[in-house]
Automatic annotation (TrEMBL):
<dbReference type="GO" id="GO:0043138">
    <property type="term" value="F:3'-5' DNA helicase activity"/>
</dbReference>
<dbReference type="InterPro" id="IPR002789">
    <property type="entry name" value="HerA_central"/>
</dbReference>
<dbReference type="InterPro" id="IPR027417">
    <property type="entry name" value="P-loop_NTPase"/>
</dbReference>
<dbReference type="GO" id="GO:0043139">
    <property type="term" value="F:5'-3' DNA helicase activity"/>
</dbReference>
<comment type="similarity">
    <text>Belongs to the HerA family.</text>
</comment>
<protein>
    <submittedName>
        <fullName>DUF87 domain-containing protein</fullName>
    </submittedName>
</protein>
<feature type="domain" description="Helicase HerA central">
    <location>
        <begin position="33"/>
        <end position="208"/>
    </location>
</feature>
<dbReference type="InterPro" id="IPR008571">
    <property type="entry name" value="HerA-like"/>
</dbReference>
<dbReference type="Pfam" id="PF01935">
    <property type="entry name" value="DUF87"/>
</dbReference>
């Protein structure tokens, strides 16, 4: 292991299946992105800066989407739910896709088996064009045999009503397919959405991302990059004997279609072990020895004590390690300065009316 700087960020790489892209983290050194990436570190450790540097290295080469939970990124195109972002949640859906989205709603709202069954029955009766408000109407029209079924149906409607009104209602009941989000370098500012429902919107967008690129066929090269901030909210850890969650399934399957996902979280153990094992690069900021052991590696305690914000250890297969100092990200991203963000966002656009 060689150490070239006192400030260290840890990078763990494994063999990937994609023909990746090389991204410089400073003038001399960088990493090659050949598969999904995990960036972890405590608040203030510099992980967001590292992700911004990676994105700067990709601007103009491939399109990117940032699911921005806290409004920290400046992009050429910024979409804010309830203002200038509106799409059809069920666009391009078939009956199997509808059942997948029902499972998504069941996971987010923690529906019971009877509630899930009511929702599935209503979804199966829908006919194209599929829209969220029509799904709500189908649940309302679902017959009940006794007061127990009536209470179950009302419980489902209470949950779905959240998606049919306010900011979420304005976002999810549009007419357009959300494919426009995947064609350029864009940010979706999820800070406008109540924290409880940010993961729902993120999962819906990941599902449409999967549909968009799977329709274009498999690819052995990176065609698009998506950054998932607060990835623990969609890639939460589960027991080995449990089936993969919806977020895990999307994460594991997207790579074969040329999608590179960058998951960002505070700790390795906040993320599903399946996801960690399937990342080709892990960037760890200010890790402990326990953090390293969770990914099957170790480092000298003296090195770990020297960790500061803004540098990198590159750990390749067999835990070979090199040091990379990460430069500071520029104030602009793709030509859009942070101070100009609001001007660019609303220029020529009319904010959505939200009840």
């Amino acid at each position: 292991m060689c150490v070239r700087a006192p400030n260290i960020l840890l990078v763990l790489t494994q063999w990937g299946i994609l023909r990746g892209l090389s991204v410089k983290l400073n003038l001399l050194s960088g990493v090659k992105l050949e598969g999904h990436v995990l960036v972890v570190g405590p608040t203030g450790s510099g992980k967001t800066n590292t992700v911004k540097v990676i994105l700067e290295g990709l601007v103009g080469r491939i399109p990117a989407l940032v699911l921005d939970y806290h409004g920290e990124y400046a992009c050429p195109r910024v979409y804010v739910p309830g203002r200038n972002l509106r799409f059809n949640m069920l666009a391009s859906s078939s009956q199997p896709d509808l059942e997948f989205l029902v499972d998504l709603l069941s996971t987010v709202f923690q529906l019971t088996e009877p509630q899930w069954y009511i929702l599935v029955k209503a979804a199966r009766k829908l006919e194209p064009p599929y829209m969220l408000r029509r799904l709500v109407e189908a649940v309302e029209e679902e017959p009940t045999r006794d007061w127990r079924e009536f209470e179950v149906k009302q419980a489902v409607l209470r949950r779905l009503s959240i998606l049919n009104e306010g900011v979420l209602g304005a976002v999810l009941n549009g007419n357009e397919d959300p494919g426009f989000l995947f064609e350029d370098y864009t940010c979706v500012d999820l800070s406008a959405v109540p924290p409880k429902y940010r993961s729902l919107l993120a999962l819906v967008l990941l599902r449409h991302l999967y549909d968009y690129f799977s329709a274009r066929g498999e690819s052995d090269r990176v065609r698009h990059v998506t950054v998932i901030e607060e990835a623990w909210s969609v890639l939460w850890p589960r027991a080995y004997w449990e089936a993969p969650s919806i977020g895990e399934r999307l994460f594991l399957e997207l790579r074969k279609f040329g999608e590179l996902l960058v998951a960002v979280s505070q700790r390795v153990d906040d993320i599903s072990s399946r996801v960690v094992r399937n990342c080709s690069v892990i960037l760890m900021h200010m890790p402990t020895q326990q953090d390293l052991e969770r990914v099957g590696c170790s480092a000298d305690e003296a090195v770990l004590r020297r960790l500061r914000r803004g540098a990198a250890l590159v750990v390749e297969p067999s835990c070979r390690v090199r040091v990379v100092k990460v430069r500071r990200a520029r104030d602009t991203a793709g030509g859009c300065a942070r101070k100009e963000r609001n001007t660019y966002l609303y220029k020529g656009q009319k904010p959505l009316d939200v009840n």
